[in-house]
Amino acid sequence: MNKQAQQVRHDHHDRTIARPSRRGVRVLLAAGAAAFTLTAGLATPLNPAPQEAQAKADGGKKTLTVALAQSVDSLSPFLATRLVSTSVHRLMYEYLTNYDPKDNHVVPGFATKWESSPDKLTWTYTIRDDSKWSDGEKATAKDAAFTFNKMMTDDAAATANGSFVTNFKKVTAPSDTQLVIELKKPQATMTSLDVPIVPEHVWKDVKDYSKFNNDQKFPIVGNGPFVLTDYKTDQYVKLKVNKDFWRKSKTPQFDEIVFKTYKDQDAAVAALRKGEVSFVAGSPALTPAQAASLKGEKNIKVNEGPGRRFYAIAVNPGARTKDGKKFGDGNKALLDQKVRQALFRSVDTKTIVDKVFQGHAVQGAGYIPPRFNDYFWQPSDGQKLSYDPEAAGKLLDDAGYPLKDGKRVGKDGKPLNFRILCHATDPNDKAVGKYLKEWWGAIGIGLKVDCLDDVSVPWYAGEYDLAFDGWSVNPDPDFVLGIHTCAALPAKAKESAATDNFICDKKFDDLYGQQLAEYDAAKRADVVKDMQSWLYDSGYMNVMAYPNAVEAYRTDQIKSITTMPTAAGNIYGQDGYWSWWSAEPASASDSSDSGSSSSTGVVIGIVIAALLVIGGGVFFAMRRRSTADDRE
Predict the structure, then answer these.
(1) What average pLDDT score do residues 419-439 get?
(2) Are 260 and 49 in contact (CB under 8 A)?
(3) For residue 307, which of 605, 549, 49 has the smallest C-alpha distance?
(4) What does pLDDT average to over the chain?
(5) Which residues contact 120 (CB under 8 A, 6 or more apart)?
(6) What angle do CA 81, 83, 87 make, to 5 degrees?
(7) CB 468 within 8 A of CB 420
(8) How many CB atoms sit inside 10 A of residue 518's CB?
(9) What sign results for the dihedral spanned by CA atoms 424, 429, 433, 434?
(10) 250 vs 577, residue with greater confidence
(11) Which of 12, 131, 488, 575 is close enough to 627 for a disulfide, judged by CB 3.0 to 4.6 Å?
């Protein structure tokens, strides 16, 4: 597999290498929390900001430019997992269903309606007859059937979203407007299959899905609200409005959207300040220092809302393939649950929220952020692995690592030392890494913080002990749970796969199967919470925080834009295309009247009634990192 395709989530990892994040700053441990100062001299984008990138009329064309400190991992929807990539795909391609911007309930997309057989094993989707590909070809149910069948029969095509089709038995398109999916057993995610539908007449000729990045011919054929017209690796992605998009209730008022990559987040923020870009998104959020520096700036608005990401420490449980072949060099001490829990108990999440995120986050525990209230879980008082260095030391004693001369030593006489993978561009990782060295050092454990530009290589090779991790969570939690199943393990050592960090456990797999087959919403939520409880007790995933979404835009370039959820949410990285589709350019009078302001969890822009296709569903307004990014 080529290097570009390998650079996934450790975003977005918008894991926020995500994901492909799943970032700039601030904490000097010896002296407490100290925020740095941004200077224009630091802001040097990877390529000069083109004049047309500004959100203003240029020869009649209005362009909205989004500044990012993250690059696309692949333009192939079969490979991409970084948040920036999946966000672009939501603009390029239709999904069977979409999510309402107001409260995240499911609304029609490429499919106008759907129904299941009484036994829930056959699902029939009515595909809209008014969608066509940007090259003029009609978009039909056959394109959807091709997309799913390719994922079912080609391991490479299943890299990003394979978990959605592992339970599929057969997919057919009896007509242009009818898609039929037959299941092996009931599957509760059938109205939330977050899979971009691709044109069969373009993709049927692709020879190797593991190497094809969909960046050879422009414009790229799609049927979404925008068409990708140009792309330069590590520089920019350009999209123009698709005049033939089926949704006619509102036409986007910006003619072009540009996602522009900067060498780091400081440079992106400086570009916003100078008016070279319209909007800046964090990785996944602006740092407290950056946000504070922008508040009070004329014509700049800071938006802050509950985030859809978590920020965590992942433990390497021993890298292995689906057939059980072990590889990598993870520290075997971490195979002991007592050791993992001792590390848990030596992390003060309150300090991380207060000092690193400076209050722009919620303390973590469960795997699903509190923004998704139905699935949000917290440990009971008796279960909670709260910060307690003394209890951590006791666990290490019980595990056979006594303290000698200030160092924990195993039976082999060797000191207990770990490595943790850190994203070089993420200031959160660096700041927390300093705290971990201090906290774990206090109980006799050594730590080396390995900050790399691309953590994908050692991650896939299993050559790490611990790693800063994080994913964006979708309204349906199936995807982020599925990456911890045995089925997500790689077929071959060191190859990319859906797995996050090689977890494979029968109990977890059994629970995953239960939630997938449960159609009763309340009962399914209970099983999802049991899965989070298992992850928590196992010590494999230490979710430290749920960061807020903190971003900013120029009010002299953007008049209004829709957040998701509309009452208090994010603009960048939505489960849909609503923000960029709804954005309205500012006029000269808007520019002269607009002063500095900030929005903290408040509606920005407009709620478009025509978007609310169906009613129902309640969303709650509370609260991860693009890394993992970024699965999305």
Answers:
(1) 94
(2) yes
(3) 549
(4) 86
(5) 183, 186, 187, 519
(6) 105
(7) yes
(8) 18
(9) positive
(10) 577
(11) 12
Q: Which pLDDT belongs to residue 263?
A: 84
Q: For the chain, how big is the Rg over CA atoms in Å?
A: 23
User: Is 606 a residue whose pLDDT tops 50?
Assistant: no
Instruction: Supply the DSSP string of 32-71, one letter for each residue.
Output: EE------GGG---SSPPPGGGSSSEETTEEEEEEEES--
Q: Band of the pLDDT at 427, cuts 50, 70, 90? A: confident
Residue 78 is encoded by which pair of tokens? 């079969």
Contacts of 142 (CB under 8 A, 6+ apart): 173, 176, 200
All structural domains of the chain: 63-306+550-585 (3.40.190.10), 309-547 (3.10.105.10)
Q: Which two tokens stand for residue 221?
A: 């054929």
| Cβ neighbours of residue 132 closer than 8 Å, sequence gap 6 or more | 138, 139, 223, 244
Lowest-confidence range among 34-43, 265-274, 326-335? 34-43
In contact, 22 and 468? CB cutoff 8 Å: yes
User: What is the reported pLDDT for 588?
Assistant: 72
Which ranges constitute the DSSP H helices of 478-601?
A: 478-482, 506-517, 521-538, 578-582, 588-593
Whether 444 shows a pLDDT value over 50: the answer reads yes
Distances (CA, A) of 482 to 89, 418, 421, 527: 21, 27, 22, 14
Supply 95's token pair.
């999904």
User: Interior CA angle at 543 toward 542 and 546, to 5°?
Assistant: 165
Torsional sign, CA 41, 46, 51, 54? negative
Q: Quote the CA–CA distance of 380 and 366 in Å, as a whole number.
A: 11
Q: How far apart are CA 372 and CA 623, in angstroms?
A: 9
pLDDT one-digit tens code per residue, 233-290: 999 999 999 999 999 878 899 999 999 999 888 999 999 999 999 999 876 789 999 9
pLDDT digits (tens, 9 = 90+) for 197-222: 999 999 999 999 999 999 999 999 99
Q: Are 188 and 121 in contact (CB under 8 A)?
A: no
Q: Which residue has the tokens 């075997």?
A: 332
pLDDT value of position 587: 87
| Distance, CA of 380 to CA of 382 (rounded, Å) | 5
pTM for this entry: 0.82
b/e sequence 580-617, b meaning 16+ C-beta within 10 Å: bbbbbbbeeebbeebeeebbebebbbbbbeebeeeeee
Candidates 279, 289, 453, 373; CA nearest to 620 is 373
- For residue 57, what pLDDT is reported? 53
pLDDT above 50 for 46: no
Give 96-154 pLDDT, tens digit per residue.
Answer: 999 999 999 999 999 999 999 999 999 999 999 999 999 999 999 999 999 999 999 99
Structure tokens at 613: 């296709």
The two tokens of residue 524 are 């399914």
Contacts of 384-387 with CB under 8 Å at 24 or more apart are 385/341, 385/344, 385/345, 385/536, 385/539, 386/345, 387/345, 387/346, 387/347, 387/348, 387/349, 387/350
Write out the two tokens for 154. Answer: 């080609």
**Residue 596's pLDDT is what?**
46
Q: CA-based angle 510:475:238, to the nearest 5?
A: 125
Please report the pLDDT score of residue 332 as a whole number.
Answer: 96
